[in-house]
Amino acid sequence: MNFQVTVLKVLVSYPDGFAVMDDIKRDMAILATSGRDWADRTKRLAARVPDLDIFSQGLVGRESGGWKITEKGRTVLEFMEARTVLNQSVETAQSETVDAHVPPLPPLADRAKRRRERRERRREGRERARSNAS
Question: Which ranges are annotated Basic residues under compositional bias (predicted)?
Answer without folding.
Answer: 112-121
